[in-house]
Amino acid sequence: MTILTSPITSGQATFLVAFVWSLLAWIASEVLNWLQSCIPSKPGDEDRDDSETGKLLPTTATAGGGAAGAVAATVSATAASLHSANGAAPAEASAAAVVVEKPPPAAAVKPAASIGFGAHGNMLTSIAHSGFVECLLMKRKALLKHRLTLRTTVEFGALMCWYFLCDRTTVFAEGEKSYSRDLFVFLFVILTSVAVMSSLQAFKMPLLLNRPQTEEWKGWMQVLFLLYHYFEAREAYNAIRIFIAGYVWMTGFGNFSYYYKTGDFCIGRFAQMMWRLNFMVFFTCVVLNNSYMLYYICPMHTIFTVFVYAALAIAPKYNQSNFWCLVKIAACFVFIFVTWDIKTVFYAIWSPFLFLMGYNDPRKPADDALHEWYFRSSLDRYIWIYGMLCAFMHPPVAALFKYIDDLPIIRRITVRSFVISLCGVAGYFYYIHIYTLPKLEYNQVHPYTSWIPITLWIILRNMTPWLRIHHLRLYGWLGCVTLETYISQFHIWMKTVIPDGQPKSLLVFIPGYPLLNFALVTALYILISHRLFELTNTLKNAVVPHSNDSLLARNCIMMAVIGLVLWAVVALIYNLVIVVE
Fold first, then answer.
1. Which of residues 555 and 318 earns the better pLDDT score?
2. Distance between CA atoms of 5 and 214, rounded to whole angstroms?
């Protein structure tokens, strides 16, 4: 009986080697930590290293994780290397960096994180003394110091193995999708009712589009998006397109708001964002031998995040001028029109990146490998710019809402009733003339009209201070893990079975009981997605420094070089074994 649904690749073999190494290193660190706790250290013992000493993250941070491909093996050690070079973690994790020897008060100097490689004069010396190299050599002190990072790496790798077990083996059965509008709506109504009754919370101030509110927005959209895929609810296609536009709108709104207010264009912060968007999907592609474009949301958010960053990071001094900010936003519209609406220009730009952005569904092969990227990104090519515009207009619009809130009660009710009526009329005409269009016709107008329902939702959701203050924490919690639930749905909620396959079937733990199976699979799926969210952030804080470009460059080079070398060696051995057999 064949267990695997597709042949093992050299990338998957590399991942396995890296994971086994991380597992052995972590086990060794735990054994050493146990022995250290049982056997008191002698005073002045240089090798003494408390289990909390050298921790990269606060005690409250979640530890877990895994190694994927060759780069995975470097993640924990590269994180560890930040300490070996006296480098600092990002600001939010700085409290976790524990100094082994406290310097004399008179020797108060600038932290090593801001002076390149700290105690080491150059990159090669820093790499040689990094926690990664020391952990590779199984040095006792390094294993103890970076025990939690190793644990994080192993847990991440174990969850990637679970992906493979569920989706690339016949261990678990697969079931057919079936759609019932009654069940689809019932599940959403029940979840929303639970959220209202148990998780209604108040924000401290009635701010327009505050963080808890946008997380709630992402959460309930994600629930409908996932149910749409699970039950194959094709009649909800147009609504799902609007939801995806809402996500992309938030990419423009959130990133513009951050860079416009803080002026923080440092490479470290940008790299942390790229890690958040692509770390998990990279290892998923390695472990399951999939194309990057299978998870099209990731490259789409990545490229539009880059565009927002570039728009504000270029000539940042002009960001203080309202006129020049509007010029930059207008320039983004022109740039997208030229590079997306003129198809020949789009293909000329992206053809060199076919290895990354190309995709072909093995069940529906086509000649144009860039079509999927062009189609997906074109649908939402303008809405991120509208998000930037909304972020730019946020202060005066928030002031307008505040002005309405302060009106005498009769005038206030009159104005709000008038605004709600206008929104209702606009929503009615949008629904009749645009939303009800057939799928292909709707796709043609979606890039130019998706801003309408988004704007109407923002106005109605923020109409009163009570609405702005209150949010549903359950949906907000789900909104924090949208990236993980999006990727995980393919492999541990549904099944793709083959590389680059779409999730055409369901993962089955309890054959013959579809609702019980749905409950069990969904519970495990949400739990794992949340763990992956925590692990990704834990490793991000450990590996990607916010304010030290030298250490960031070193870590990137270290991960890339070690990853490529390990992959080359494993691939050579793997191919030789295949030839011999």
1. 318
2. 40
User: What confidence score (pLDDT) does residue 408 get?
Assistant: 96
Residue of 67, 71, 79, 55 lying closest to 156 (CA atoms):
67
217 pLDDT higher than 60: yes
The residue behind tokens 């649904």 is 5
**CA distances in angstroms from 519 to 171, 187, 510, 516, 525, listed in the order given:** 19, 11, 10, 5, 10
DSSP H/E element including 175 = strand 173-175
What are the helix and strand counts (H, E) for the chain? 25, 5
Secondary structure of 75-135 in HEC code, one letter for each residue: HHHHHHHHHHCCCCCCHHHHHHCCCCCCCCHHHCCCCHHHCCCCCCCCHHHHHHCCHHHHH
Position 251, amino acid = T
Among 41-55, 81-95, 515-529, the range scoring the smallest mean pLDDT is 81-95
Q: What is the CA 322 to chain-centroid distance, rounded?
A: 32
Q: 137-194, pLDDT tens digit by residue?
A: 888 888 999 899 999 999 999 999 999 999 999 999 999 999 999 999 999 999 999 9
Q: Which helix (H) or strand (E) holds 350?
A: helix 343-350
Phi first, then psi: what are they for 132, rounded to 5°?
-65, -50
pLDDT band at 132 (very low <50, low <70, confident <90, very high): confident
Question: Residue 277's pLDDT is what?
Answer: 96
Rounded Cα distance, 45 and 32, in Å: 15
- The model's confidence at residue 118, banded by pLDDT at 50, 70 and 90, is low
Residue with tokens 């040689």, as numbered in its chain: 128
Long-range pairs, 113-116, Cβ under 8 A, ≥24: 113/86, 113/87, 113/88, 113/545, 113/547, 113/548, 113/551, 114/88, 114/547, 114/548, 116/548, 116/550, 116/551
Q: Which residue has the tokens 């494993």?
A: 570
Q: Quote the CA–CA distance of 541 and 323 in Å, as a whole number.
A: 37
Task: Work out the widest C-alpha separation in the chain, in whole angstroms.
Answer: 86
Structural contact between residues 497 and 174, judged by C-beta atoms closer than 8 angstroms? yes
According to DSSP, the residues that pair with 470 across neighbouring strands are 202
User: How far, in Å, CA of 53 to CA of 29, rounded?
Assistant: 13
Helices assigned H by DSSP within 406-548: 409-430, 439-449, 451-461, 465-469, 473-479, 482-492, 514-543
Buried b (16+ CB within 10 A) or exposed e, 517-556: bbeebeebbbebbbbbbbbbbbbbbbbbbbbbebbbebbe
With a CB cutoff of 8 Å and minimum separation 6, the contacts of 286 are: 11, 12, 14, 15, 68, 69
Closest CA relative to residue 261, chosen from 212, 312, 221: 312
* Per-residue model confidence (pLDDT) at position 98: 32
**CA 524 to CA 59: how far, in whole Å?**
25
57-66, 133-142, 294-303, 361-370: least confidently modelled range: 57-66
d(CA 517, CA 505) in angstroms, rounded, equals 13
Helix (H, G, I), strand (E, B) or coil at 169: strand
Q: How confident is the model at residue 579 (pLDDT cuts 50, 70, 90)?
A: confident
